[in-house]
Amino acid sequence: MKNNKIAIVAADNPEAVQAEKDLKARYDHVDPSDADIIVALGGDGFMLHTLHEHKGEHVAFYGMNRGSVGFLMNEYEPDDLVDRLNRAEPVSLKPLLMTAETADGKIKTAPAINEVSILRQTQQAAKVRILVNDVVRLDELICDGALVSTPAGSTAYNLSAHGPIVPISSEILCLTPISAFRPRRWRGALLQQSVKVTFEILEADKRPVSACADYTEIRDVVRIHVTQEPTTRVKLLFDPEHDLEERIIKEQFTP
């Protein structure tokens, strides 16, 4: 049996808070900063928050669903937690790095585990030029916005924007427009995870745009680079019977 040090954290909804109380009464636990495995109780949004707050080279994350959405979470079951953690199978996530230049010349960076998105700030549609590895691929996209999603994020905002779902183990990024007006029929692209995607904001003074890396927002941007974060990896743990790849396949055939 592995002697993993376990931390238990929870979202602030009643179901998660009660589950945290129950598990802490039954199992030895440590502070998240000292843990080998962090058990997160909530939904996918709370898991995303936990990954950002506690990600590190040696820590793994095991979620149990006590929220409204649980695509990245295992089924909640308070019994046999230590055994479940010992049997859990790892999945490695590769975050993105957003580098944004603002209208006043500042450069700001932020990591993203799900997606980097750009969104219009006013009633005016955004005008965006899209480059891949410094080559212009779309000279002008008129839209509400666009996003670059990791495989882990392909079932989140990307799916809501009618982007494709991709297997979590794939080396693929989803480039997806949000409410595209021109070119109307452009539905986005699938790209290798190693590429650099650049958004250049056209008429930025008239059509201001904000950029978001997961929940970190930077306003009044003029240029955004999206690359794979070179050093960070995030390890999620799943029950063998969870079969995340199977869930991704099934999601694509859900009416």
What would your notes on this structure say?
The radius of gyration is 19 Å and the shape is elongated. It is built from five helices and 17 strands. The strands form three sheets. A six-stranded antiparallel beta sheet has the order 6-5-16-13-8-9, with no helix packed on it. A six-stranded antiparallel beta sheet has the order 12-11-10-7-14-15, with no helix packed on it. It has a five-stranded mixed beta sheet with strand order 1-2-3-17-4, sandwiched between helices. It has two domains: 109 residues, 3-Layer(aba) Sandwich (Rossmann fold), CATH 3.40.50; 133 residues, Probable inorganic polyphosphate/atp-NAD kinase, domain 2 (Tumour Suppressor Smad4, Sandwich). It is an alpha+beta fold and 255 residues long. Helices cover 17% and strands 39% of the residues. The longest helix has 13 residues.
CATH architecture identity of the largest domain? Sandwich
CATH class of the largest domain: Mainly Beta
Count of domains: 2
Q: What would the CATH topology of the largest domain be?
A: Tumour Suppressor Smad4
* Tally of strands: 17
Distance between the termini: 43 Å
Order of helices and strands: EHEHEHEEEEEEEHEEEEEEEH
